[in-house]
Design goal:
By secondary structure, this protein is mainly beta. It contains 1 helix and 15 strands.
């Protein structure tokens, strides 16, 4: 009987030691949460990607239909970036503590569109036939394109403003005209 008590005591001692040792050095995760809105308004941004990067690794979360995101992170200091289509991204620092909630809200500024696109078709003025491989350029600047086999061209990413458009092809008279490019619009 005495021997049985010693074995039970030893098993209990080892079991308790395992539980105690497994709890040391393993801090519980903390929570990073917040709301993503349009800067200067209370309008929420859904689908924003929040990326937290720190020594434990990189973690991501996405804002829901109420603009709220939540991530469970190991305790550490993180560089947190919030990005959403159509908005300038923003980065801030957050320190996550074990079993604690840290709130980090983001107010993103809408991207201001400052470019436009110009498209068109180059044709022979006498026959209306498409002219492939005609050079189309805008000055000032270095915007240019060649027409495809159907005489069509597209020049994207043109800074909004006024330009002189020049169309040229060997064997044809060079044509020029003034065009205005509007931010976010397509000019033909």
């Amino acid at each position: 009987m005495n021997r049985l008590i010693k074995w039970i005591t030893l098993v209990m001692y080892l079991t308790c030691s395992i539980f105690i040792m497994s709890g040391t050095g393993h801090a519980a995760n903390g929570t990073l949460t917040g709301k993503v809105t349009v800067s200067g308004t209370s309008t929420v941004i859904t689908g924003a990607t929040i990326t937290a990067t720190g020594t434990p690794g990189t973690f991501t979360a996405t804002s829901n239909s109420k603009g709220v995101y939540t991530a469970s992170l190991p305790p550490a200091t993180y560089s947190v970036t919030c990005a959403a289509a159509g908005y300038n991204s923003k980065t801030a620092s957050a320190t996550i503590r074990s079993a604690a909630k840290t709130t980090l809200n983001f107010a993103l500024v809408k991207v201001v569109v400052t470019t436009g696109t110009i498209t068109g078709t180059v044709t022979n003025s006498a026959t209306a036939a498409a002219i492939p491989a005609a050079a189309v350029s805008l000055t000032p600047g270095t915007y240019s394109a060649l027409t495809d086999t159907a005489g069509k061209y597209t020049i994207s990413g043109v800074t909004a403003g006024s330009y002189t458009q020049t169309v040229s092809k060997t064997g044809f008279t060079t044509a020029t005209k003034q065009v205005a490019i509007t931010a976010g619009a397509t000019t033909t």
